[in-house]
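Intended use. Records such as the Energy-coupling factor transporter transmembrane protein EcfT entry shown here are meant for training and evaluating sequence-to-structure methods. They are not intended to support clinical decisions.
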Amino acid sequence: MLKDITIGQFFPGNSIIHRLDSRFKIVLDIAYVVMLFMAGNYCSLISAGLFMLIIYMMSGISFKLIFKSLKPIMPIILFTCILNLFFIHGEGDPLVKLGFITIYAEGINTSVFMTVRIVFLIVGMSLLTYTTSPIALTDAIERLLSPLKKLRFPVHELAMMMTIALRFIPTLIEETDKIMSAQKARGANLDTGGLVKKAKALIPVLIPLFVSAFKRANELALAMECRCYRGGEGRTRMKQLKFGARDIVATVVMAVMFTLIILMNIYVAVPGI
C-alpha cells in the first residue's frame, strides 16, 4: 500500500497541461477547489468531476494512477462518510433505527455528496504535483507570494520548505517500505495484534526513519551550501516562467466552467446538500 501513495510525485510529460505556467496552475487549482465547494447539487458536482477527468486525459496521466493514489486515503474517506451517515439528522421518520443508531435520508444524501466531493478534491489537487516539477512549483509559489516581501515575510524560504517537504514525501515512503521489509525479514510482526501492539511494533520502524530523514536533510543542506545557495536574493533561474496563449485559454475555460456551475446551482432542480 505504501508504494501506491503518489502524493508529491512528478510525472514528466509534454502535454498542454504540463506546459502551462505553474503560477496559473496553482491559481486554477485553487479555483477548482472553490468550484467544488460551490457545487450545491449532484449535477454541478458530477460536472466538475467530469471536467477534471477530461483534464487528466489531456495530461496523459493514467486513470490507474488515480485509483492507486486514492487507495491509501480510503479509510479517511470512509470514516468521513460514516460520520455524516450517523450524525446528520433530518426531518420525518428515520430510515433505520437500531438502538442508538439512527439513519435518515438526509444523512445518506450528505454522506454520499461529501464523499464524492472529497474524492474529486483529492484528484484535482494531486494533478498539480503530477504535472509540475518541484523547481517550477517553488518559483510559482515564490512569485505568487512576492507581495508579502514588503512585509519582510520570508517568501523564498517558505516556498523552498514547502517544495522540499512535498518532494521528500515519496522518498520517505520508499524508505519506510524498505525499513518495514527489513524488520519483517528479522521476524518482526507488524500486521497482527491489537491497536496498542501495532503501535509498539511501529517503534522499530519510526526510529530508523527519523534517523534517515535527519541524515538526508543534513546531506541536502550541505549540498546546497556547497553550491553557494544564499536564498532568493539575486538568484538567477535557468528556466523562466512565461505567460502564453495556452494560459489565457485555460483561464477562459475555467471561467466558463465556473459560470456553468453557478447556473446549474440556480436552475437545475437536482437534490444536493
